[in-house]
Structures are given as C-alpha cells and as structure tokens.
Design goal:
15 helices, 3-stranded antiparallel sheet, globular, Rossmann fold, alpha/beta, binds adenosine monophosphate, single chain
C-alpha cells in the first residue's frame, strides 16, 4: 500500500521516479499530464480544450483535471494505492484531492518533494526527447551527438511542445506561483518529505523509496523528544523543532524508551531541574545558547527572577524604586 503525491517543478523527475516506484511496488502512476496528453492524442472534446492551454505552459482548469483524476482513481488498480504525479498543482486542487480521498477512504501517506535547482530543471526540460512509440525518455545532453532515434526500437524521438525553450520559463513561473505553496500546505499537515532530486538516477530512487516508506512519528512522540531537549538544554531549538524530519530513522519504541528514562534522570537531579525548568521555558534566547549544568541553571533562574520582579513593578506605582531594583539586579549579574 502506497498512497503518495509527488511534488516538484517540471523536470524534477517526478515521472521517472513514479515509473520506478510503480515497477517495484505495483501501485499505478497517476499522472495528470499523461491523462491530459492522452485526451489530446485521442482528440476528445476535453483534449481539444486542454491542448492550447498545455502548449502555452499554463494550467488546465481544475474542473477538467479533477474529472480525469477522479475517474482514474476509481479504477480497480488504484484500490491499493497510487502515485500521484503532477497533481495537485495548486491549493484548490489539494483541497479537492483531500475531499476525494476522504470519500474513497484512501488518505495520503506522504507527499514527496523532489528538490532540484532551477538551472538543472532548465537543462533537463530543454534537452528532453521522448520515443514516440515506447515513451522512453532521453536527454540530448547525455545522448551521443546527432542521435534522433530510440535505442530500444529505432523510432524517431520527439520534443514535447511545452518543452520548447520559450514555454519552459512560463511553466517554471507557474510552478513558483501556484504549485510551490503546496510545500508549506503539506508541511503543515505533517505529510511533506523532501528528497534531493539531483545526482544518479539510482541514488535519487533510493532516497525516494526511503522517504516513501518512512513511518511518520505521531505528534505525541514528537513532543516527548522536544521536552527532553528543553529540560536537558543540549539540543538546539532548530533540532527540537524538527523531530518529524528526523522521524525516518526513529522507531516509536526508541522514543518510548527515552521517554521512560527521562523522569528517572530528572528525579536524581531534582534540585537542578527545579532551577532549570523556568528559565528554559521562559527564556527568549535560542535554545542552542542555553547553558545546561545545574549551577548555571540555578544562576540564570535567580537572574531571571530578579529581572522579572522590578519589571513587574515598573508597570505599577513606584517607577523610581523599580528602576533602582533593576540596576541592582543588573549589577549582581
Ligand atoms: P506535466 O506532464 O505534469 O508536466 O504536465 C503537462 C501540462 O499538463 C502542464 O503544463 C499543464 O498544462 C497540464 N497539467 C498537468 N497536470 C495538471 C494539473 N494538475 N492541473 C492543471 N494542469 C495540469
């Protein structure tokens, strides 16, 4: 069972990676671009409507694409999962997908973002050539110079109309404006997994596989890691704020074990904990800079208390007295 969305700019390799995942895991690749191209090739009414929009590098209407996706996901081979490639492409499509998946009882497992630099995208798209017969994708930059036919069946290679240089810029701009917001959208939902999309095909595939199969860490487990970092004060704020990103390698059993070990340790350091607790929680300084030993924690606790007392009163009736206290407290530091 694999229910994933592949997110990434045109040319990031979604199609290639989807095909490899499909071959290995037996779940169908559902590519909105392929469904549209098929409609265009068959000359259907929908295909006629879509063609000019596609050739211009714009997005086809949500209604048309949704209709195609709904129909495709209702087929028997998608009952045990799917790899969505090129859909959703904007927030409205993402919301529509969410509703559709709820309806058919197939919630998403993950959204994999293929991360590729713009310069590489341009090169891949402009150089892409496809076999008219078997669909094998080549790139002129990696083919012997002058090659115009497929190595497998000798059929002439062609260039997609929207891979022409003048359209590529438009497609990348559309991605930036309409599709990129999905990164934050799925990140908030805890579904996003970023995969480095450059390098050897095989290595990218390994990373994709690992990201697709990684188990998510439930929110409760995430909190355990964060509390531990805060009380120990050793882990940086950035690290403790991103436990989900590290989730792939952490088993829930491990996290549980750490959660159990924590209270015991804390009991042994009862007095240190008492002092360390308040400043760690209230300090606005980055966690990475917080000192950890009981001594330092106690000191900073006193300082914080001293700094808090006069500040409170300064807002009240005796500003002069309060100001003197502040100075006194600062001198003590
Ligand atoms: P792709 O093969 O994913 O690069 O898609 C090729 C073209 O099909 C895009 O440039 C769009 O014009 C259209 N298309 C594919 N997927 C979508 C989608 N989800 N929403 C709107 N248009 C799409």
């Amino acid at each position: 069972m694999m229910r994933i969305v592949l997110l990434g700019a045109p040319g990031s390799g979604k199609g290639t990676q989807a095909q490899r995942l499909m071959a290995k895991y037996g779940v169908p690749q559902v590519s909105s671009g392929d469904l549209l191209r098929d409609a265009v090739a068959r000359g259907t009414e929908l295909g006629k409507q879509a063609k000019s929009v596609m050739d211009a590098g714009q997005l086809v209407s949500d209604e048309i694409v949704l209709g195609l996706i709904r129909e495709r996901l209702s087929r028997a081979d998608a009952a045990n999962g799917f790899i969505l490639d090129g859909f959703p492409r904007n927030i409205d499509q993402a919301n529509a997908l969410n509703a559709l998946l709820k309806e058919i009882g197939q919630p998403l497992d993950a959204v994999l973002l293929l991360d590729v630099r713009n310069q590489t995208l341009m090169q891949r798209l402009a150089g892409r050539r496809i076999c008219q017969k078997c669909g094998t994708v080549y790139n002129i930059h990696s083919l012997p110079p002058g090659t115009t036919t497929c190595a497998k069946d000798g059929t002439e290679l062609y260039q997609r109309p929207d891979d022409k240089e003048e359209v590529i810029g438009k497609r990348l701009a559309v991605y930036d404006q309409q599709t990129k917001p999905l990164v934050a959208h799925y990140s908030k939902l805890g579904l996003l997994r970023k995969v480095a999309g450059e390098g050897e095909l095989e290595q990218v595939f390994e990373r994709m596989e690992a990201a697709a199969l990684a188990k998510p860490v439930p929110a409760s487990k995430v909190k355990v890691t964060k509390t531990r970092a805060a009380s120990k004060g050793k882990t940086s704020a950035a690290k403790s704020a991103k436990p989900a990103a590290r989730s792939a390698s952490k088993t829930s059993a491990k996290v549980k074990a750490k959660a159990k070990a924590k209270p015991a340790k804390q009991a042994a350091k009862k007095s240190a904990k008492k002092a360390a607790k308040k400043p760690a929680a209230k300090s606005k300084a980055p966690a990475a800079k917080r000192k950890t030993s009981a001594k330092v924690a106690k000191k900073s606790s006193k300082r914080a208390a001293a700094a808090r007392r006069p500040a409170k009163k300064a807002a009240g009736k005796a500003p002069a007295k309060a100001a003197r206290r502040v100075t006194k407290a600062r001198k003590k530091k």
